[in-house]
């Protein structure tokens, strides 16, 4: 049966802002306190989805979460009406309250780790919602992400959605951003590559390593993966210290192609040997390694070259790299891309996409999407209201233009009006995406 690699993108949330909340993410730190443009950000993300859907790729939509998330402030002891909780939060615990307002769930590559049914022992697709336990503002996403995945992939005959791993540092998990799947064909059994920055509790780098070996081993076990086709690789400490807080900032892969920077792994030769061994007899992996000499790691981080989507474009023999527009401003990257497509390797074209609002928080085109390989039967079992088409595009465009603020400063987030503004918008979205009753916290209280 033929399978496709679908992309499910997170919609940029109503409170998209530059809080400077992600230590080790250089763009987040650099743009702290800037005024954001939520409407523009959401429309940029939507345009990317529409473009790929129009090209014939299967494209899904994941809903933003309710923000501010007053549950966090209530857990921290603030009480009273919703308005009082937010006001008191800003007055007495501003950092915590800023975290409760973050729209970071838009970066769907961090929503979950996904193992297609061709790889799992029970023949179902497995998802593990990420606990995102390293960053406070992201640690509140997991349970609602699980609900969103359940809304999209609710049929237990085909899908199994696991809850987040335990919320302890040794189980730190940031989802598919540290996971790559290589294969001969999407529907064939593949090699799953899990990348971790530390084994468990140790903290030995200047910036946090957000994924652990304990977490990825746990996920591989619960997804029922064949260990002979599973590779665990340590992320390069040089890359983490240069600002590659997720592996997908230095590496992307699809089909039989792994495209990565020379600093991506602690021991590149070992990773290549392990992947070759795991793929043996099934497919011939192709490794496209970019040297420090061609593109220095600092240019990798500013341009986000590797936070590109590597896709099979309908009708094209070679893969297409969908890179952030910022790549066009980095001479070493421009030169490299010209050389890349002029060669006869697996990548035949580079396209640039404008997701600047997200990029300024360290989220490129690949961060915004979660890849889900679907057989025809599985695709038929997905919630159809969450799949992009002309009608959904038009409805979401109208919804964004109606509800999103044009600009947002950190002070604006202290205005209690944003609570109801958000709820009204998400109430409408619940209907548009057919998310079911009691989907959002405010709909359950
Ligand atoms: O977790 N930025 C996100 C960016 C996530 C990018 N995802 C992948 N690489 N897959 C993060 O660091 C910034 C929020 C702020 O500073 O307001 C933030 O959370």
Q: Would you mind describing this structure in some detail?
A:
The protein is of the alpha/beta class. It has a single domain (about 5-65, about 100-445), classed as Succinylarginine dihydrolase (L-arginine/glycine Amidinotransferase, Chain A), CATH 3.75.10. About 35% of the residues lie in helices and about 15% in strands. It has 16 helices and 15 strands. The protein has helices at about 25-30, 40-55, 70-75, 80-90, 95-100, 140-150, 215-220, 235-240, 270-280, 295-305, 330-340, 355-360, 375-380, 390-405, 415-430, 440-445, and strands spanning about 5-10, 60, 110-115, 125-130, 160, 180, 190-195, 230-235, 250-255, 255-260, 285-290, 310, 320-325, 345-355, 370-375. The strands form 5 sheets. The chain has a 3-stranded mixed β-sheet with strand order 2-1-15, with helices on both faces. A 3-stranded mixed β-sheet has the order 3-4-5. Strands 6-7-8 form a 3-stranded mixed β-sheet, sandwiched between helices. A hairpin with a 7-residue loop joins β12 and β13 (about 320-325). α2 (about 40-55) runs antiparallel to α14 and α4 crosses α5 (about 95-100). The termini are far apart. The relative contact order is 0.18. Bound molecules: N~2~-(3-carboxypropanoyl)-L-arginine. N~2~-(3-carboxypropanoyl)-L-arginine (SUG) binds near residues 22, 25, 138, 249 and 361.
- Helices, by number, come to 16
Side by side, the strands of the main sheet go 2-1-15
Strand-residue fraction?
Answer: 15-25%
CATH topology: L-arginine/glycine Amidinotransferase, Chain A
């Amino acid at each position: 049966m033929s399978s496709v690699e679908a992309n499910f993108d997170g919609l940029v949330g109503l409170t998209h802002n530059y809080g400077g909340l992600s230590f080790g993410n250089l763009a987040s730190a650099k743009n702290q306190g800037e005024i954001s443009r939520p409407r523009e950000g959401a429309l940029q993300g939507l345009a990317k989805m529409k473009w790929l859907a129009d090209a014939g790729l299967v494209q899904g939509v994941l809903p933003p979460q309710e923000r501010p998330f007053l549950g966090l402030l209530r857990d921290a002891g603030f009480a009273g009406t919703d308005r009082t909780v937010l006001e008191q939060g800003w007055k007495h615990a501003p950092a915590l309250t800023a975290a409760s307002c973050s729209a970071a769930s838009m970066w769907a590559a961090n929503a979950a780790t996904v193992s297609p049914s061709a790889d799992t022992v029970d023949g179902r697709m497995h998802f593990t919602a990420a606990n995102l336990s390293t960053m406070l503002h992201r640690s509140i996403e997991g349970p609602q992400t699980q609900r969103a995945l359940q809304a999209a992939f609710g049929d237990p005959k085909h899908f199994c959605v696991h809850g987040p791993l335990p919320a302890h540092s040794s189980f730190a998990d940031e989802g598919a951003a540290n996971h790559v799947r290589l294969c001969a064909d999407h529907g064939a059994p593949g090699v799953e590559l899990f990348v971790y920055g530390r084994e468990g509790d140790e903290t030995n780098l200047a910036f946090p390593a957000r994924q652990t070996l304990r977490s990825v081993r746990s996920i591989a076990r619960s997804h029922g993966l064949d260990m002979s086709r599973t590779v665990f690789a340590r992320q390069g400490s040089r890359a983490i210290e240069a600002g590659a807080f997720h592996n997908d900032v230095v590496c992307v892969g699809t089909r039989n192609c792994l495209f990565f920077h020379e600093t991506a792994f602690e021991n590149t030769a070992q990773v290549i040997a392990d992947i070759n061994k795991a793929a043996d007899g099934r497919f011939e992996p192709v490794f496209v390694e970019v040297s420090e000499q061609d593109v220095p790691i600092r240019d990798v981080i500013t341009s986000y070259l590797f936070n590109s989507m590597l896709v099979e474009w309908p009708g094209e023999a070679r893969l297409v790299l969908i890179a952030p527009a910022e790549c066009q401003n980095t001479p070493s990257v421009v030169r490299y891309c010209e050389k890349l497509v002029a060669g006869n390797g697996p990548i035949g074209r580079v396209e640039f996409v404008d997701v600047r609002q997200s990029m300024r928080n360290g989220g490129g085109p690949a961060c915004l999407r979660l890849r889900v390989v679907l057989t025809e039967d599985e695709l038929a079992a997905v919630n159809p209201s969450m799949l992009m088409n002309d009608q959904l595009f038009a409805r979401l465009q109208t919804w964004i233009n109606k509800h999103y603020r044009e600009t947002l400063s950190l002070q604006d987030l202290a205005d209690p009006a944003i609570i109801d503004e958000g709820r009204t918008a998400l109430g409408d979205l619940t209907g548009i995406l057919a998310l079911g009753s009691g989907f959002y916290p405010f709909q359950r209280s």
